Amino acid sequence: MKKRASTSHLRPTVIGTGLVALDVVCNTQSQSVPAFFAGGTCGNVLAILSYLGWRAMPISRLSHGIHTDRLIADLHQWNVDTSLVTLTEDGSTPVIFHRIGRRANGEPFHSFSWRCPECGHYLPGYKPVTGAGAELLTKTLPGCQVFFFDRVSRGSLTLASEAFKHGAVVVFEPSGVGDPTLFREAWSIAHIVKYSHERLQDIADLGLKTTDKENVLLEIETLGADGLRYRSVLPEAKTRGWQEFAALQLDDLKDAAGSGDWCTAGILSKIARGGVKGLRRIASKSLQDAIRFGQAAAAWNCAFEGARGGMYRFDASSFQTHVKAILARKAIHPADQAHAEQSSQKLTHVCPACHDAGIVLHASRRKGHAS
User: Fold this and answer.
1) Which of 91, 148, 268, 296 could form a disulfide with 326 if both were Cys (CB 3.0 to 4.6 A apart)?
2) Where do the structural domains in the chain lie, given as residue ranges?
3) More confident residue, 29 or 369
4) 361 has a pLDDT exceeding 60
5) pLDDT grade, residue 243 (50/70/90)?
6) Which helix (H) or strand (E) holds 260?
7) Residues facing residue 58 across a β-bridge
8) pTM
9) 45-62+79-90+130-344 adopts what CATH topology?
10) Are 179 and 168 contacting, i.e. CB atoms less than 8 angstroms apart?
């Protein structure tokens, strides 16, 4: 990894690897065609940080095709640097179908599926950067303040270890355990671990020892509607056990999808700009303020449809103004016109089976397959 001086006037850099996917978003109560957005945990976190002024560089092994073109086009819209994304014959561009709408009682819902809701065909899934590919990247990888990963593989661990050596804050946000051995290794490399209680209730069963956690400076567990809790061994922000923060709420919830990604990006934007050296100097009050900022960003996101809907309606300055209002417990009502620049393309080229049969999916169709 190239060693690059970090100066305050330069944008901080985040490099990440993991789930970068094409989100196909269908509103079941709309007659409009589905819309296409870059998504996945890694994709969302990096796009949000770019929106907040960071240089964001995902590392992904994608395939050629129209869905990749759509994904890259959306990342470029948010100034995400895709120079570390490779397009290969053995790569894969994940496609995830999202259905949003409201139930009969008015409650909003958001479902995810890895199958075409029209024909049931499994869509392309995630393929990690290979171990050999990661080894090659370590020789030319630019310096960064943060390295983020949400999927465990030999390649992601190689890259995380290299970033660790050069002073980056290594952030691990798993959605599941997968291979327990690799999971423990990932945990031992990370400075910050953030996970959902709902998805990783079995984390205690892994038997993680103190030595496995020696590098983890900050551990965050999200609790859904109950907020989150954290514990820290940061030198200036140590806690005695878990500290809990209630969730911040908006009066008019549209869609909670992606809120965890906003929380992550919001926290990192406040505490990780100076790499691991800067993180170690974070005071307790600054850490708590950063966590509340992340929660407020998550609450703001709930006012829009889609994982990053607000970004398509408001610039970063307006976002900051809205978040300050949320933190001050002032009512805000952002315009409910998310994704104003939606794609008007149809889905025949996303699902291979539907393409071959000439089937076009319309957002108003309700049948589908649960994920």
Assistant:
1) 296
2) 19-44+63-78+91-128+345-371, 45-62+79-90+130-344
3) 29
4) no
5) very high
6) helix 259-271
7) 16
8) 0.88
9) UDP-N-acetylmuramoyl-L-alanine:D-glutamate ligase (3.40.1190)
10) no
